[in-house]
Amino acid sequence: MNDFMNAIDDLVKEKGITKELLMDAIESALVAAYKKNYGTAQNVRVVFEGDMEGIEVLMRKDVVEEVEDEFTQISLEEALEIDPRYQVGDVVEYQVTPQNFGRIAAQTAKQVVVQKIREAERGMVFDNYINRQGDLITGVVQRISNETIFVNIGNTEGILVAGERARGERFRVNDRIKAYIMDVRKSTKGPQIFLSRTHPGFVERLFELEVPEIEDGIVEIKSIAREAGSRTKIAVYTEDEDVDPVGACVGTGGSRVRNIVDELFGEKIDITTWDDDPKILIKNVLSPAKVEEVLIDEEEKAATVIVPDYQLSLAIGKEGQNVRLAARLCGWKIDIKSHSQYFGDEEDEYYDDDEYYDDYEDGEYIEEAEEAEAAEETEESEETEEADAKAGEAEEVETAEEE
């Protein structure tokens, strides 16, 4: 028995579970083992003798005048034979340990110990990771099954399903991988740790990792809007007038944001300044587009944004992505109008903007701008010729009058 208890002590130290919990479980298991062999209706309890030198099974019965259940009751006459001080209503407890109960106890205890250790380990893993929900974690790709990646994160396994990876992300076994702990659930096989690389919180944790000012609380991430694998918009804020929140996130020469972009496999990141004034905020979040005016409807929490005609496509973005992310970022409904659309101008205004050329597809805008520029030059030339003609006529009239 001493060897058994020494083994229990070693397991308690190794696995980090309490000895009391384990011993209570063993006692309960031994009671169940006794009832299984000697009758389930019997009222017994198991105790360990002295310094765990042996095991005793004690039968418990209520003292009654007339016995109705022999497994749980004893007559007053029989109780008095055990001890003359017993009275009706007392509880008699006497030893009924079977001769071979030590062998049964050993087998049962082994099974219980193994089971309790597994349950305790699963419980500790669950308690550990449920408190880390929303954190960034680094692991190693252990195996891949039907596009689901199982990540070794130490004492358990994380699950990264295909839908929680950005399009184009590819990993192989033994690759190191960063992920966001999205959810922790209990199951019959133990805790399940669900990971994500598409969650906006993943980008937020990457910025906390790369930008000390965010980790220290000097710069605050106010909002994030993300379409994983394509573009993320992030709004940052600081109360410290000596700190540029956008510059802190970008880093010297773009080093900080570049590390995050590399981790996201080239996903574009727009960093802008948060402002409590919705007009300023909406102008900021529509970057890189330039905004002429923002009209606010407080009740509907909606905004009409007027942009130069040449900026309309840039403000809306490819397939509406820029304005869609901007609306998510600031929490306002945004309706984009070009200057001519809102004010009813007949002619569109064009502007030679290299940033806009980069966003416009197939050079269509460049051709239109060049045509507009040529038309403008022609119009200016005609106006010049007309002015010269008028000036010539004026000179001729003046000469005739002098003569």
Task: Tell me about this structure.
By secondary structure, the protein is of the alpha/beta class. Helices cover 43% and strands 24% of the residues. The chain has 14 helices and 15 strands. The chain has helices spanning 2-15, 19-38, 76-82, 101-130, 200-210, 212-215, 245-250, 255-263, 278-285, 312-316, 321-330, 339-343, 354-359, 364-402; strands at 44-49, 54-64, 73-75, 91-95, 136-145, 148-152, 157-160, 176-185, 192-196, 220-227, 231-237, 268-273, 293-297, 302-307, 333-338. The termini are far apart.
Layout of helices and strands, plus pairs?
Layout: H1 2-15, H2 19-38, E1 44-49, E2 54-64, E3 73-75, H3 76-82, E4 91-95, H4 101-130, E5 136-145, E6 148-152, E7 157-160, E8 176-185, E9 192-196, H5 200-210, H6 212-215, E10 220-227, E11 231-237, H7 245-250, H8 255-263, E12 268-273, H9 278-285, E13 293-297, E14 302-307, H10 312-316, H11 321-330, E15 333-338, H12 339-343, H13 354-359, H14 364-402
Parallel strand pairs: 2-3, 7-9, 11-12, 14-15
Antiparallel strand pairs: 1-2, 2-4, 5-6, 5-8, 6-7, 8-9, 10-11, 13-14
Helix pairs in contact: 2-4, 5-8, 9-11
